Amino acid sequence: MATTLSTRPKQSAGESPRLRPRRRSLLGLNWLGGAAGWLWLVIVMVPIYWIVITSFKTQSNYFSTNPLAPPSSPTLASYRLVIESDFIRYFANSVIVTLGAVIPAVLVSFMAAYAIVRAGRSSRFLRSVNALFLMGLAIPLQATIIPVYLIIIRLQLYDTLLAIILPSIAFAVPLSVLVLSNFIRDVPKELFESMRMDGATEWGTLWHLAFPLTRPALVTVTIYNGLLIWNGFLLPLILTQSPDQRTLPLALWTFQGQYGINVPAVLASVVLTTLPILILYVVGRRQLLSGLTAGFGK
Amino acid sequence: MTALAPPTARVEKNTTSTGGRSGPVVWMALPALAIFTAFGVIPLLGVVFLSFTTWDGIGEVVPSGLTSWRAVLSDPGLPHALYATFLIMFLSWAFQTPLSILIGVFLAGHERYRAVLAVLYFVPLLLSSAAIAIAYKALLDPNFGLGAGLGIDFLVQDWLGEEKLAIGTVIFVVSWQFIPFHSLIYQGGVRQIPTSMYEAAQIDGAGRMRRFFSITLPQLKYTIITSSTLMVVGSLTFFDLIFVLTAGGPGDATRVLALDMYKEGFQASLMGPASAIAVILVLVGLALALILRRIGGGSSGDSQLEGA
Protein backbone atom coordinates (compact mmCIF):
# COMPACT_ATOMS: atom_id res chain seq x y z
CA MET A 1 0.00 0.00 0.00
CA ALA A 2 2.78 2.40 0.92
CA THR A 3 4.34 2.17 -2.49
CA THR A 4 1.16 2.87 -4.35
CA LEU A 5 0.56 5.85 -2.18
CA SER A 6 3.94 7.33 -2.86
CA THR A 7 3.80 6.95 -6.61
CA ARG A 8 0.26 7.94 -7.39
CA PRO A 9 -0.41 11.43 -6.10
CA LYS A 10 1.20 13.16 -9.10
CA GLN A 11 -1.09 11.45 -11.54
CA SER A 12 -4.24 12.07 -9.63
CA ALA A 13 -3.53 15.72 -8.96
CA GLY A 14 -5.18 16.50 -12.25
CA GLU A 15 -8.43 14.77 -11.35
CA SER A 16 -9.05 16.38 -8.02
CA PRO A 17 -12.84 16.64 -8.47
CA ARG A 18 -13.03 12.93 -7.86
CA LEU A 19 -11.74 13.49 -4.39
CA ARG A 20 -14.38 16.00 -3.45
CA PRO A 21 -17.14 13.86 -1.99
CA ARG A 22 -15.29 12.62 1.01
CA ARG A 23 -16.63 10.35 3.68
CA ARG A 24 -20.02 10.16 2.10
CA SER A 25 -19.24 8.26 -1.02
CA LEU A 26 -16.03 6.74 0.16
CA LEU A 27 -17.80 3.70 1.47
CA GLY A 28 -19.13 2.73 -1.89
CA LEU A 29 -22.46 1.28 -2.92
CA ASN A 30 -24.07 4.29 -1.39
CA TRP A 31 -27.26 4.58 -3.40
CA LEU A 32 -28.05 0.92 -2.99
CA GLY A 33 -27.43 1.19 0.73
CA GLY A 34 -29.60 4.29 0.81
CA ALA A 35 -32.42 2.54 -1.01
CA ALA A 36 -32.19 -0.41 1.35
CA GLY A 37 -32.03 1.90 4.33
CA TRP A 38 -35.12 3.89 3.45
CA LEU A 39 -37.06 0.84 2.30
CA TRP A 40 -36.33 -0.91 5.55
CA LEU A 41 -37.37 2.14 7.50
CA VAL A 42 -40.79 1.95 5.83
CA ILE A 43 -40.98 -1.77 6.54
CA VAL A 44 -40.10 -1.16 10.18
CA MET A 45 -42.35 1.81 10.74
CA VAL A 46 -45.56 0.80 8.94
CA PRO A 47 -46.40 -2.09 11.30
CA ILE A 48 -45.50 0.02 14.33
CA TYR A 49 -47.64 2.88 13.08
CA TRP A 50 -50.46 0.44 12.40
CA ILE A 51 -50.19 -1.07 15.89
CA VAL A 52 -50.36 2.32 17.55
CA ILE A 53 -53.25 3.84 15.58
CA THR A 54 -55.28 0.65 15.67
CA SER A 55 -55.02 0.50 19.45
CA PHE A 56 -56.97 3.78 19.57
CA LYS A 57 -59.80 2.55 17.35
CA THR A 58 -63.03 1.00 18.47
CA GLN A 59 -63.60 -2.56 17.50
CA SER A 60 -66.27 -1.74 14.91
CA ASN A 61 -64.16 1.09 13.62
CA TYR A 62 -61.35 -1.38 13.10
CA PHE A 63 -63.37 -3.51 10.72
CA SER A 64 -64.84 -0.63 8.77
CA THR A 65 -62.08 1.92 8.25
CA ASN A 66 -58.93 2.10 6.19
CA PRO A 67 -56.34 0.30 8.34
CA LEU A 68 -53.69 2.97 7.78
CA ALA A 69 -55.95 5.95 8.41
CA PRO A 70 -55.78 7.37 11.92
CA PRO A 71 -58.98 6.89 13.93
CA SER A 72 -61.51 9.66 13.39
CA SER A 73 -62.50 9.60 17.03
CA PRO A 74 -59.65 8.09 19.06
CA THR A 75 -60.76 6.11 22.07
CA LEU A 76 -58.98 4.79 25.12
CA ALA A 77 -61.54 2.02 25.59
CA SER A 78 -59.06 -0.69 24.60
CA TYR A 79 -56.52 0.59 27.07
CA ARG A 80 -59.13 0.67 29.79
CA LEU A 81 -60.07 -2.93 29.02
CA VAL A 82 -56.44 -4.01 29.16
CA ILE A 83 -55.72 -2.21 32.42
CA GLU A 84 -58.85 -3.65 33.97
CA SER A 85 -57.67 -7.13 33.01
CA ASP A 86 -55.12 -7.17 35.82
CA PHE A 87 -52.50 -5.47 33.71
CA ILE A 88 -51.11 -3.68 36.76
CA ARG A 89 -50.37 -6.96 38.47
CA TYR A 90 -48.56 -8.40 35.45
CA PHE A 91 -46.70 -5.17 35.10
CA ALA A 92 -45.60 -5.33 38.73
CA ASN A 93 -44.54 -8.96 38.27
CA SER A 94 -42.44 -8.02 35.27
CA VAL A 95 -40.81 -5.18 37.20
CA ILE A 96 -40.00 -7.49 40.13
CA VAL A 97 -38.59 -10.19 37.88
CA THR A 98 -36.55 -7.76 35.80
CA LEU A 99 -35.06 -5.80 38.67
CA GLY A 100 -34.70 -8.92 40.79
CA ALA A 101 -32.70 -10.62 38.08
CA VAL A 102 -30.79 -7.81 36.42
CA ILE A 103 -29.30 -6.15 39.49
CA PRO A 104 -27.80 -9.32 40.98
CA ALA A 105 -26.81 -10.57 37.52
CA VAL A 106 -24.85 -7.42 36.73
CA LEU A 107 -23.28 -7.27 40.19
CA VAL A 108 -22.06 -10.86 40.27
CA SER A 109 -20.91 -10.62 36.65
CA PHE A 110 -19.03 -7.43 37.40
CA MET A 111 -17.27 -9.01 40.35
CA ALA A 112 -16.42 -12.10 38.31
CA ALA A 113 -15.16 -10.00 35.39
CA TYR A 114 -13.01 -7.99 37.76
CA ALA A 115 -11.52 -11.12 39.28
CA ILE A 116 -10.87 -12.64 35.87
CA VAL A 117 -9.11 -9.55 34.58
CA ARG A 118 -7.11 -8.90 37.77
CA ALA A 119 -5.94 -12.47 38.05
CA GLY A 120 -4.87 -12.47 34.43
CA ARG A 121 -2.93 -15.59 33.63
CA SER A 122 -1.85 -16.19 37.19
CA SER A 123 -4.90 -18.14 38.28
CA ARG A 124 -5.68 -21.35 36.54
CA PHE A 125 -8.95 -21.54 38.42
CA LEU A 126 -10.18 -18.21 37.12
CA ARG A 127 -9.09 -19.04 33.61
CA SER A 128 -11.24 -22.17 33.72
CA VAL A 129 -14.13 -20.14 35.11
CA ASN A 130 -13.77 -17.76 32.20
CA ALA A 131 -13.64 -20.65 29.75
CA LEU A 132 -16.80 -22.05 31.31
CA PHE A 133 -18.64 -18.75 30.80
CA LEU A 134 -17.40 -18.53 27.21
CA MET A 135 -18.73 -22.00 26.58
CA GLY A 136 -22.06 -20.84 27.99
CA LEU A 137 -22.23 -18.34 25.16
CA ALA A 138 -22.15 -21.02 22.51
CA ILE A 139 -24.91 -23.10 24.03
CA PRO A 140 -28.54 -22.33 23.42
CA LEU A 141 -29.50 -22.18 27.08
CA GLN A 142 -33.16 -22.79 26.31
CA ALA A 143 -32.11 -26.37 25.66
CA THR A 144 -31.51 -26.76 29.40
CA ILE A 145 -35.07 -25.82 30.29
CA ILE A 146 -36.22 -29.31 31.28
CA PRO A 147 -33.60 -29.83 34.02
CA VAL A 148 -34.18 -26.22 35.12
CA TYR A 149 -37.85 -27.10 35.47
CA LEU A 150 -36.96 -30.18 37.51
CA ILE A 151 -34.63 -28.20 39.78
CA ILE A 152 -37.24 -25.50 40.32
CA ILE A 153 -39.82 -28.11 41.27
CA ARG A 154 -37.41 -29.80 43.68
CA LEU A 155 -36.60 -26.44 45.27
CA GLN A 156 -40.35 -25.95 45.69
CA LEU A 157 -40.14 -22.72 43.75
CA TYR A 158 -42.49 -23.71 40.95
CA ASP A 159 -45.06 -21.02 40.18
CA THR A 160 -43.19 -18.25 41.99
CA LEU A 161 -41.43 -15.23 40.59
CA LEU A 162 -38.17 -16.46 42.10
CA ALA A 163 -38.42 -19.43 39.74
CA ILE A 164 -38.06 -17.01 36.82
CA ILE A 165 -35.46 -14.82 38.52
CA LEU A 166 -32.83 -17.45 39.38
CA PRO A 167 -32.37 -18.98 35.91
CA SER A 168 -32.56 -15.51 34.37
CA ILE A 169 -29.55 -14.45 36.43
CA ALA A 170 -27.64 -17.55 35.38
CA PHE A 171 -28.48 -17.06 31.69
CA ALA A 172 -27.30 -13.44 31.85
CA VAL A 173 -23.91 -14.20 33.40
CA PRO A 174 -21.84 -15.39 30.39
CA LEU A 175 -22.45 -12.44 28.09
CA SER A 176 -22.24 -9.91 30.94
CA VAL A 177 -18.91 -11.25 32.13
CA LEU A 178 -17.55 -11.19 28.59
CA VAL A 179 -18.55 -7.60 27.88
CA LEU A 180 -17.56 -6.29 31.32
CA SER A 181 -14.19 -8.01 31.36
CA ASN A 182 -13.42 -6.52 27.93
CA PHE A 183 -14.04 -3.09 29.40
CA ILE A 184 -12.20 -3.64 32.70
CA ARG A 185 -9.22 -4.79 30.65
CA ASP A 186 -9.09 -1.31 29.14
CA VAL A 187 -8.48 0.31 32.53
CA PRO A 188 -4.78 1.29 32.63
CA LYS A 189 -2.77 -1.01 34.88
CA GLU A 190 -1.02 1.95 36.50
CA LEU A 191 -4.30 2.95 38.10
CA PHE A 192 -4.65 -0.43 39.76
CA GLU A 193 -1.07 -0.20 40.84
CA SER A 194 -1.46 3.21 42.43
CA MET A 195 -4.60 2.09 44.21
CA ARG A 196 -2.59 -0.74 45.66
CA MET A 197 0.18 1.60 46.73
CA ASP A 198 -2.39 3.65 48.57
CA GLY A 199 -3.24 0.53 50.51
CA ALA A 200 -6.61 -0.12 48.93
CA THR A 201 -7.97 -3.62 49.09
CA GLU A 202 -9.11 -5.40 45.94
CA TRP A 203 -12.65 -4.94 47.15
CA GLY A 204 -12.09 -1.21 47.51
CA THR A 205 -10.40 -1.01 44.11
CA LEU A 206 -13.35 -2.81 42.59
CA TRP A 207 -15.79 -0.19 43.81
CA HIS A 208 -13.70 2.97 43.76
CA LEU A 209 -11.76 2.42 40.57
CA ALA A 210 -13.20 -0.21 38.27
CA PHE A 211 -16.83 0.60 38.95
CA PRO A 212 -16.76 4.28 37.99
CA LEU A 213 -14.48 3.65 35.02
CA THR A 214 -16.66 0.95 33.52
CA ARG A 215 -19.96 2.64 34.23
CA PRO A 216 -20.90 2.96 30.51
CA ALA A 217 -20.40 -0.76 30.05
CA LEU A 218 -22.37 -1.47 33.19
CA VAL A 219 -25.25 0.62 31.91
CA THR A 220 -25.16 -1.14 28.55
CA VAL A 221 -25.13 -4.58 30.12
CA THR A 222 -27.91 -3.60 32.49
CA ILE A 223 -30.13 -2.32 29.70
CA TYR A 224 -29.40 -5.26 27.46
CA ASN A 225 -30.15 -7.84 30.13
CA GLY A 226 -33.14 -5.87 31.30
CA LEU A 227 -34.56 -5.96 27.80
CA LEU A 228 -34.06 -9.69 27.45
CA ILE A 229 -35.59 -10.48 30.82
CA TRP A 230 -38.46 -8.03 30.51
CA ASN A 231 -39.33 -9.64 27.18
CA GLY A 232 -38.62 -13.21 28.30
CA PHE A 233 -41.32 -15.71 27.43
CA LEU A 234 -40.04 -19.25 27.80
CA LEU A 235 -39.11 -19.17 31.49
CA PRO A 236 -42.44 -17.72 32.67
CA LEU A 237 -44.30 -20.08 30.33
CA ILE A 238 -42.66 -23.14 31.81
CA LEU A 239 -41.94 -22.17 35.40
CA THR A 240 -45.20 -20.50 36.37
CA GLN A 241 -48.79 -21.50 36.06
CA SER A 242 -51.20 -19.29 37.97
CA PRO A 243 -52.41 -15.92 36.65
CA ASP A 244 -51.02 -14.27 39.79
CA GLN A 245 -47.46 -14.99 38.73
CA ARG A 246 -47.80 -14.01 35.08
CA THR A 247 -45.32 -11.60 33.58
CA LEU A 248 -46.24 -9.29 30.73
CA PRO A 249 -45.20 -11.33 27.67
CA LEU A 250 -47.07 -14.33 29.00
CA ALA A 251 -50.05 -12.16 29.87
CA LEU A 252 -50.01 -10.80 26.32
CA TRP A 253 -50.21 -14.29 24.97
CA THR A 254 -53.10 -15.37 27.19
CA PHE A 255 -54.79 -12.04 26.58
CA GLN A 256 -54.59 -12.66 22.86
CA GLY A 257 -56.17 -16.05 23.42
CA GLN A 258 -59.06 -14.44 25.30
CA TYR A 259 -59.64 -11.35 23.20
CA GLY A 260 -58.31 -12.60 19.86
CA ILE A 261 -61.07 -10.96 17.85
CA ASN A 262 -60.79 -7.66 19.63
CA VAL A 263 -57.75 -6.56 17.68
CA PRO A 264 -57.58 -2.99 19.08
CA ALA A 265 -57.50 -4.38 22.62
CA VAL A 266 -54.80 -6.92 21.75
CA LEU A 267 -52.72 -4.18 20.15
CA ALA A 268 -53.31 -1.87 23.09
CA SER A 269 -51.82 -4.54 25.31
CA VAL A 270 -48.83 -4.75 22.97
CA VAL A 271 -48.35 -0.99 23.22
CA LEU A 272 -48.73 -0.95 26.99
CA THR A 273 -46.17 -3.69 27.55
CA THR A 274 -43.67 -1.92 25.31
CA LEU A 275 -44.22 1.57 26.65
CA PRO A 276 -41.94 1.37 29.71
CA ILE A 277 -39.12 0.01 27.57
CA LEU A 278 -39.71 2.71 24.99
CA ILE A 279 -39.42 5.39 27.66
CA LEU A 280 -36.19 3.88 28.94
CA TYR A 281 -34.94 3.69 25.38
CA VAL A 282 -35.62 7.36 24.78
CA VAL A 283 -33.71 8.19 27.96
CA GLY A 284 -30.78 5.82 27.52
CA ARG A 285 -30.61 5.16 23.80
CA ARG A 286 -27.23 6.77 23.17
CA GLN A 287 -25.71 4.60 25.82
CA LEU A 288 -27.37 1.49 24.46
CA LEU A 289 -26.60 2.04 20.77
CA SER A 290 -22.98 3.03 21.28
CA GLY A 291 -22.49 0.33 23.87
CA LEU A 292 -23.87 -2.37 21.60
CA THR A 293 -21.87 -1.32 18.58
CA ALA A 294 -18.74 -1.08 20.69
CA GLY A 295 -19.39 -4.41 22.35
CA PHE A 296 -20.30 -6.40 19.27
CA GLY A 297 -18.55 -4.63 16.43
CA LYS A 298 -15.02 -5.49 17.41
CA MET B 1 -0.46 -8.53 35.57
CA THR B 2 2.30 -8.04 38.04
CA ALA B 3 0.06 -6.18 40.40
CA LEU B 4 -1.10 -9.47 41.73
CA ALA B 5 1.85 -10.33 43.83
CA PRO B 6 -0.14 -10.42 46.98
CA PRO B 7 1.53 -8.26 49.58
CA THR B 8 -1.69 -6.48 50.44
CA ALA B 9 -2.72 -9.00 52.97
CA ARG B 10 -5.52 -6.86 54.25
CA VAL B 11 -8.19 -8.62 52.29
CA GLU B 12 -11.37 -9.36 54.12
CA LYS B 13 -11.92 -12.82 52.76
CA ASN B 14 -9.14 -15.09 51.87
CA THR B 15 -11.20 -18.18 52.18
CA THR B 16 -10.65 -19.82 48.84
CA SER B 17 -7.77 -22.17 48.63
CA THR B 18 -7.61 -22.37 44.84
CA GLY B 19 -5.84 -19.73 42.84
CA GLY B 20 -2.66 -19.39 44.80
CA ARG B 21 -1.21 -15.96 44.20
CA SER B 22 -4.47 -14.40 43.12
CA GLY B 23 -6.28 -15.46 46.25
CA PRO B 24 -7.51 -11.96 47.06
CA VAL B 25 -9.74 -11.80 43.98
CA VAL B 26 -10.77 -15.37 43.41
CA TRP B 27 -13.71 -15.25 45.78
CA MET B 28 -15.25 -12.45 43.74
CA ALA B 29 -15.93 -14.86 40.90
CA LEU B 30 -17.67 -17.33 43.16
CA PRO B 31 -21.21 -15.87 43.26
CA ALA B 32 -21.40 -15.77 39.46
CA LEU B 33 -19.90 -19.22 39.25
CA ALA B 34 -22.33 -20.58 41.82
CA ILE B 35 -25.47 -19.35 40.11
CA PHE B 36 -24.22 -20.25 36.66
CA THR B 37 -23.35 -23.73 37.90
CA ALA B 38 -26.72 -24.21 39.57
CA PHE B 39 -28.85 -23.05 36.65
CA GLY B 40 -26.50 -23.44 33.69
CA VAL B 41 -23.93 -26.19 34.12
CA ILE B 42 -25.97 -28.61 36.20
CA PRO B 43 -28.97 -28.36 33.86
CA LEU B 44 -26.64 -28.90 30.93
CA LEU B 45 -25.39 -32.12 32.49
CA GLY B 46 -28.89 -32.83 33.71
CA VAL B 47 -30.35 -32.74 30.24
CA VAL B 48 -27.94 -35.46 29.16
CA PHE B 49 -28.87 -37.48 32.23
CA LEU B 50 -32.60 -36.98 31.69
CA SER B 51 -32.33 -38.15 28.10
CA PHE B 52 -31.63 -41.61 29.54
CA THR B 53 -34.68 -41.59 31.78
CA THR B 54 -38.43 -41.61 31.61
CA TRP B 55 -40.26 -38.78 33.30
CA ASP B 56 -43.73 -37.39 32.80
CA GLY B 57 -42.94 -34.02 34.33
CA ILE B 58 -44.78 -34.70 37.59
CA GLY B 59 -43.89 -38.07 39.05
CA GLU B 60 -40.58 -39.79 39.62
CA VAL B 61 -37.66 -39.75 37.24
CA VAL B 62 -37.00 -43.35 36.25
CA PRO B 63 -33.80 -44.40 34.49
CA SER B 64 -34.67 -46.19 31.30
CA GLY B 65 -31.50 -46.59 29.30
CA LEU B 66 -31.72 -45.87 25.64
CA THR B 67 -35.52 -45.91 25.39
CA SER B 68 -35.85 -42.20 24.86
CA TRP B 69 -33.05 -42.01 22.34
CA ARG B 70 -34.49 -44.93 20.43
CA ALA B 71 -37.87 -43.25 20.35
CA VAL B 72 -36.47 -39.93 19.22
CA LEU B 73 -34.08 -41.25 16.61
CA SER B 74 -36.69 -43.48 15.01
CA ASP B 75 -39.31 -40.72 14.97
CA PRO B 76 -39.69 -39.17 11.51
CA GLY B 77 -40.47 -35.95 13.39
CA LEU B 78 -36.78 -35.49 14.19
CA PRO B 79 -35.39 -35.25 10.66
CA HIS B 80 -38.27 -32.97 9.85
CA ALA B 81 -37.55 -30.72 12.83
CA LEU B 82 -33.88 -30.63 11.87
CA TYR B 83 -34.84 -29.77 8.32
CA ALA B 84 -37.17 -26.99 9.43
CA THR B 85 -34.52 -25.64 11.83
CA PHE B 86 -31.79 -25.51 9.20
CA LEU B 87 -34.11 -24.22 6.52
CA ILE B 88 -35.24 -21.31 8.66
CA MET B 89 -31.69 -20.76 9.88
CA PHE B 90 -30.25 -20.65 6.40
CA LEU B 91 -32.97 -18.59 4.76
CA SER B 92 -33.07 -16.05 7.54
CA TRP B 93 -29.28 -15.74 7.41
CA ALA B 94 -29.29 -15.41 3.61
CA PHE B 95 -32.01 -12.79 3.75
CA GLN B 96 -30.69 -10.76 6.66
CA THR B 97 -26.98 -10.63 5.93
CA PRO B 98 -26.88 -8.74 2.61
CA LEU B 99 -29.58 -6.34 3.75
CA SER B 100 -27.89 -5.74 7.09
CA ILE B 101 -24.56 -5.04 5.39
CA LEU B 102 -26.15 -2.59 2.96
CA ILE B 103 -28.04 -0.80 5.70
CA GLY B 104 -24.99 -0.85 7.96
CA VAL B 105 -22.87 0.78 5.26
CA PHE B 106 -25.59 3.33 4.74
CA LEU B 107 -25.88 4.07 8.46
CA ALA B 108 -22.13 4.43 8.79
CA GLY B 109 -22.31 7.77 7.01
CA HIS B 110 -22.06 10.64 9.43
CA GLU B 111 -25.07 12.68 8.31
CA ARG B 112 -27.37 13.60 11.09
CA TYR B 113 -30.52 12.11 9.57
CA ARG B 114 -28.85 8.74 9.49
CA ALA B 115 -28.41 8.90 13.24
CA VAL B 116 -32.13 9.56 13.53
CA LEU B 117 -32.83 6.57 11.31
CA ALA B 118 -30.64 4.41 13.52
CA VAL B 119 -32.78 5.39 16.50
CA LEU B 120 -35.97 4.42 14.67
CA TYR B 121 -34.48 1.18 13.42
CA PHE B 122 -33.89 0.03 16.90
CA VAL B 123 -37.54 0.09 17.93
CA PRO B 124 -38.40 -3.51 16.87
CA LEU B 125 -35.70 -4.74 19.23
CA LEU B 126 -37.57 -3.25 22.16
CA LEU B 127 -40.65 -5.35 21.53
CA SER B 128 -40.84 -8.85 22.92
CA SER B 129 -41.02 -11.67 20.43
CA ALA B 130 -44.43 -12.49 21.87
CA ALA B 131 -45.64 -8.95 21.20
CA ILE B 132 -44.27 -8.98 17.66
CA ALA B 133 -45.81 -12.35 16.89
CA ILE B 134 -49.18 -11.25 18.26
CA ALA B 135 -49.14 -8.02 16.27
CA TYR B 136 -48.16 -9.80 13.06
CA LYS B 137 -50.83 -12.40 13.54
CA ALA B 138 -53.42 -9.64 13.55
CA LEU B 139 -51.71 -7.73 10.77
CA LEU B 140 -51.50 -10.70 8.44
CA ASP B 141 -54.99 -12.00 9.08
CA PRO B 142 -56.42 -12.80 5.64
CA ASN B 143 -59.89 -11.57 6.57
CA PHE B 144 -59.34 -8.64 8.87
CA GLY B 145 -55.65 -7.77 8.49
CA LEU B 146 -53.86 -4.94 6.79
CA GLY B 147 -54.05 -6.44 3.29
CA ALA B 148 -57.79 -7.02 3.45
CA GLY B 149 -58.39 -3.54 4.83
CA LEU B 150 -56.38 -1.90 2.10
CA GLY B 151 -57.79 -4.18 -0.58
CA ILE B 152 -54.35 -5.16 -1.85
CA ASP B 153 -54.79 -8.64 -3.27
CA PHE B 154 -51.16 -9.60 -2.94
CA LEU B 155 -51.30 -9.05 0.79
CA VAL B 156 -54.48 -11.06 1.17
CA GLN B 157 -53.06 -14.51 1.48
CA ASP B 158 -53.26 -17.13 4.12
CA TRP B 159 -49.79 -16.18 5.35
CA LEU B 160 -49.76 -18.51 8.31
CA GLY B 161 -51.96 -21.22 6.86
CA GLU B 162 -49.85 -22.52 3.98
CA GLU B 163 -46.55 -24.24 4.52
CA LYS B 164 -44.34 -22.22 2.21
CA LEU B 165 -45.97 -18.95 3.08
CA ALA B 166 -45.70 -19.69 6.79
CA ILE B 167 -41.96 -20.33 6.52
CA GLY B 168 -41.56 -17.17 4.48
CA THR B 169 -43.58 -15.24 7.05
CA VAL B 170 -41.45 -16.53 9.92
CA ILE B 171 -38.30 -15.47 8.07
CA PHE B 172 -39.74 -12.06 7.33
CA VAL B 173 -40.81 -11.45 10.91
CA VAL B 174 -37.44 -12.65 12.21
CA SER B 175 -35.72 -10.26 9.81
CA TRP B 176 -38.04 -7.46 10.83
CA GLN B 177 -37.01 -8.02 14.40
CA PHE B 178 -33.27 -8.53 13.95
CA ILE B 179 -32.05 -6.73 10.81
CA PRO B 180 -31.88 -3.46 12.75
CA PHE B 181 -29.62 -5.07 15.32
CA HIS B 182 -27.28 -6.56 12.75
CA SER B 183 -27.23 -3.32 10.78
CA LEU B 184 -25.93 -1.61 13.89
CA ILE B 185 -23.21 -4.21 14.25
CA TYR B 186 -22.20 -3.59 10.64
CA GLN B 187 -22.38 0.14 11.15
CA GLY B 188 -19.84 -0.22 13.95
CA GLY B 189 -17.69 -2.46 11.77
CA VAL B 190 -17.72 -0.10 8.80
CA ARG B 191 -16.80 2.85 10.97
CA GLN B 192 -13.67 1.07 12.09
CA ILE B 193 -12.35 0.72 8.56
CA PRO B 194 -9.61 3.33 8.18
CA THR B 195 -10.67 6.12 5.81
CA SER B 196 -7.17 6.14 4.37
CA MET B 197 -7.88 2.84 2.66
CA TYR B 198 -10.74 4.37 0.74
CA GLU B 199 -8.73 7.43 -0.09
CA ALA B 200 -5.93 5.31 -1.41
CA ALA B 201 -8.35 3.25 -3.47
CA GLN B 202 -9.96 6.37 -4.81
CA ILE B 203 -6.63 7.78 -5.81
CA ASP B 204 -6.04 4.50 -7.59
CA GLY B 205 -9.24 5.13 -9.45
CA ALA B 206 -11.37 2.39 -7.94
CA GLY B 207 -15.07 2.89 -8.48
CA ARG B 208 -17.71 2.54 -5.80
CA MET B 209 -18.50 -1.07 -6.58
CA ARG B 210 -14.86 -1.90 -6.62
CA ARG B 211 -14.28 -0.14 -3.30
CA PHE B 212 -17.20 -1.96 -1.76
CA PHE B 213 -16.08 -5.38 -2.90
CA SER B 214 -12.34 -4.93 -2.42
CA ILE B 215 -12.27 -2.89 0.78
CA THR B 216 -15.54 -2.82 2.67
CA LEU B 217 -16.45 -6.48 2.41
CA PRO B 218 -13.00 -7.94 3.17
CA GLN B 219 -12.54 -5.51 6.04
CA LEU B 220 -15.88 -6.57 7.46
CA LYS B 221 -14.81 -10.21 7.62
CA TYR B 222 -14.81 -10.45 11.39
CA THR B 223 -17.97 -8.44 11.69
CA ILE B 224 -19.65 -10.78 9.24
CA ILE B 225 -18.54 -13.76 11.30
CA THR B 226 -19.72 -12.20 14.55
CA SER B 227 -23.06 -11.25 13.08
CA SER B 228 -23.51 -14.62 11.37
CA THR B 229 -22.68 -16.47 14.56
CA LEU B 230 -25.26 -14.48 16.44
CA MET B 231 -27.81 -15.12 13.69
CA VAL B 232 -27.14 -18.81 13.36
CA VAL B 233 -26.86 -19.71 17.03
CA GLY B 234 -29.67 -17.27 17.81
CA SER B 235 -31.94 -18.93 15.26
CA LEU B 236 -31.81 -22.10 17.32
CA THR B 237 -33.63 -20.22 20.02
CA PHE B 238 -36.48 -18.74 17.99
CA PHE B 239 -38.87 -20.35 20.34
CA ASP B 240 -41.22 -17.62 21.50
CA LEU B 241 -41.71 -16.06 18.09
CA ILE B 242 -42.60 -19.28 16.32
CA PHE B 243 -44.55 -20.61 19.27
CA VAL B 244 -46.87 -17.61 19.32
CA LEU B 245 -46.94 -16.97 15.58
CA THR B 246 -47.57 -20.45 14.16
CA ALA B 247 -47.25 -22.85 17.10
CA GLY B 248 -45.20 -24.98 14.70
CA GLY B 249 -47.90 -25.13 12.09
CA PRO B 250 -49.42 -25.36 9.61
CA GLY B 251 -49.04 -29.09 10.13
CA ASP B 252 -45.46 -29.32 11.33
CA ALA B 253 -44.03 -26.91 8.76
CA THR B 254 -42.38 -24.60 11.28
CA ARG B 255 -41.85 -27.12 14.06
CA VAL B 256 -38.19 -26.35 14.70
CA LEU B 257 -36.08 -28.26 17.22
CA ALA B 258 -36.76 -25.93 20.15
CA LEU B 259 -40.48 -26.19 19.53
CA ASP B 260 -40.24 -29.93 19.06
CA MET B 261 -38.57 -30.15 22.47
CA TYR B 262 -41.25 -28.07 24.11
CA LYS B 263 -44.15 -29.97 22.58
CA GLU B 264 -42.66 -33.35 23.30
CA GLY B 265 -41.84 -32.44 26.90
CA PHE B 266 -44.45 -30.02 28.13
CA GLN B 267 -47.42 -30.92 25.97
CA ALA B 268 -46.96 -34.66 25.48
CA SER B 269 -45.29 -35.07 28.92
CA LEU B 270 -42.46 -37.11 27.44
CA MET B 271 -39.54 -35.46 29.20
CA GLY B 272 -37.09 -38.24 28.30
CA PRO B 273 -37.40 -37.86 24.54
CA ALA B 274 -37.68 -34.09 24.94
CA SER B 275 -34.33 -34.11 26.77
CA ALA B 276 -32.81 -36.14 23.95
CA ILE B 277 -34.01 -33.48 21.51
CA ALA B 278 -32.49 -30.84 23.78
CA VAL B 279 -29.14 -32.65 23.71
CA ILE B 280 -29.30 -32.62 19.92
CA LEU B 281 -30.07 -28.90 20.07
CA VAL B 282 -27.01 -28.28 22.25
CA LEU B 283 -24.80 -30.34 19.95
CA VAL B 284 -26.06 -28.50 16.87
CA GLY B 285 -25.38 -25.17 18.60
CA LEU B 286 -21.87 -26.15 19.65
CA ALA B 287 -21.04 -27.59 16.25
CA LEU B 288 -22.19 -24.44 14.48
CA ALA B 289 -20.24 -22.20 16.84
CA LEU B 290 -17.10 -24.26 16.29
CA ILE B 291 -17.52 -24.29 12.52
CA LEU B 292 -18.03 -20.55 12.42
CA ARG B 293 -15.01 -19.99 14.60
CA ARG B 294 -12.95 -22.20 12.31
CA ILE B 295 -14.08 -20.13 9.34
CA GLY B 296 -13.21 -17.04 11.33
CA GLY B 297 -9.66 -18.28 11.49
CA GLY B 298 -8.33 -19.30 14.81
CA SER B 299 -8.53 -18.76 18.46
CA SER B 300 -8.16 -14.99 18.52
CA GLY B 301 -11.92 -14.97 18.43
CA ASP B 302 -12.40 -15.24 22.16
CA SER B 303 -13.72 -11.72 22.28
CA GLN B 304 -15.92 -12.28 19.26
CA LEU B 305 -19.30 -13.21 20.54
CA GLU B 306 -20.33 -16.77 20.32
CA GLY B 307 -24.05 -16.22 20.47
CA ALA B 308 -26.33 -14.65 22.97
Quick structural overview:
The complex is a heterodimer of chains A (298) and B (308). Chain A has 298 residues and is mostly helical.
What's the rounded overall pLDDT mean of chain B? 81
Look at the structure and name the CATH superfamily of the largest domain in chain A: MetI-like
Largest sheet of chain B: 2 strands, antiparallel
Structural class of chain A: mainly alpha
Mind telling me which CATH architecture of the largest domain in chain A this is? Orthogonal Bundle
Q: What would you note in describing this structure?
A:
- Chain A has 298 residues and is mainly alpha-helical.
- Chain A has helices at residues 2-7, 9-12, 23-26, 30-55, 59-64, 77-119, 124-138, 145-154, 161-185, 189-197, 202-213, 215-230, 234-239, 248-259, 263-296.
- In chain A, helix 7 crosses helix 9 (161-185).
- The model of chain A is unreliable at 1-28 (pLDDT under 50).
- Chain B has a single domain (70-303), classed as MetI-like (MetI-like fold, Orthogonal Bundle), CATH 1.10.3720.
- In chain B, 66% of the residues lie in helices and 1% in strands.
- Chain B has helices spanning 23-26, 30-50, 67-74, 77-108, 112-121, 123-126, 129-139, 146-150, 163-191, 195-203, 208-219, 221-235, 239-245, 257-267, 271-296; strands at residues 53-54, 62-63.
